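@here heads up, posting the sequence + SMILES for the pyridoxal-5'-phosphate run so it's all in one place. Ping me if the SMILES looks off, I pulled it from an old spreadsheet.
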Amino acid sequence: MDRGYIYVNKNNFRHNIDYLNNLTDRELCIVVKANAYGHGIDWTVNTAIDSGVVWFAVATIDEAILVRSISDDIRILLLSEPAVSELEKLAIHNIDTTVYNETFIEALGESQHSFNVHLKIDTGMHRVGCSPDKFDMLYEKISSFNNLALEGICTHFPVADTDERQTNHSVKIFKETISAVDIENLLIHADNSASITYNNEKIFNMTRVGLAAYGHSISPVSIASELKPVMEIKTRISNIQIRKKGESVSYGKALILEKDALIATAPIGYGDGYPWNSFPDGKVIVNNKFCRLIGRVTMDQILFDITGMEVEINDEVTILGVSLDSSIEISIKDIAEWNNTIEWEILTNIKDNRLNRVEIEN
Ligand SMILES: Cc1ncc(COP(=O)(O)O)c(C=O)c1O
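bot reply: prediction finished. Complex structure tokens:
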């Protein structure tokens, strides 16, 4: 190992898909945008296909084309309207697209190609989606074009992970908005990783799930989750030094040592997606013990306290995941909390151009 490994555990990913399939009888649409939340899109899509997944959601046309290059037999959903200049690619690569603007629907309708569309309603997220009072007009508009097939109607929840009541209110708006429509042959989807744990509304028959598929439970209700984290990050000790009381290490002299310390360096930094704000609260694991970060995270290296420990250069350092004896763990939630951010941001920032991604089966 030179710098470190991003281990992605295929078995855990399969387990999560099976677990989610048992949790809901809705079709699973696995969200693989942003390089499958930093896990690597290729193996993720292939493994999900082997587990019976048919639907995949992406954020960009390029992601959609990449997923299409993996299989012709799956369905791909673009989660928002692309630029009109990209329309042809939707048709060529057989990509379903989300729609919500009259002008965009007209551009699709006036094209020579045929398109599958999912009409998105804004039920509180206020990001993209048509307002409920525009729904009937847009529904009619889609129906008026022979080259447009309405495949689904959807919405997206803004506070599914924190507020069950407001999410239920969004569901109510959604149901009222589509109440006059024959939904018999349509995909009706709204859920994400959080709402899948409590939204039992029967109207929905598909769920778009990202974070949970990668093993992270996110719910405002108390559930005994059996999800297993898919990613672990390990690196190695690359340098050991003794520093004296009163000295400091790394940029900014951010921490002055209160006593003499043995300090290790590991070759991972914010250039690999390990976030800068991990110091001062962050930790790593060496020899089944937590070691606190002892200076600012730099672009390529971090420093941590190994005082009193018997360690050598090349000993393994766990950045994310469980210790060798499985007694302690650093989770994505921990790293997100040190950085005052969310699990999604930490995962999607992890880069596999300097760390090696290794696919493991167990
Ligand atoms: C429109 C949409 N649907 C579903 C998801 C999946 O969310 P989660 O990762 O919380 O499951 C996302 C995530 O960003 C999204 O933007």
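MO: The first helix runs from residue 10 to 23.
MO: One more: Residues 31, 79, 156, 192-194, 208-212 surround pyridoxal-5'-phosphate (CB under 6 Å).
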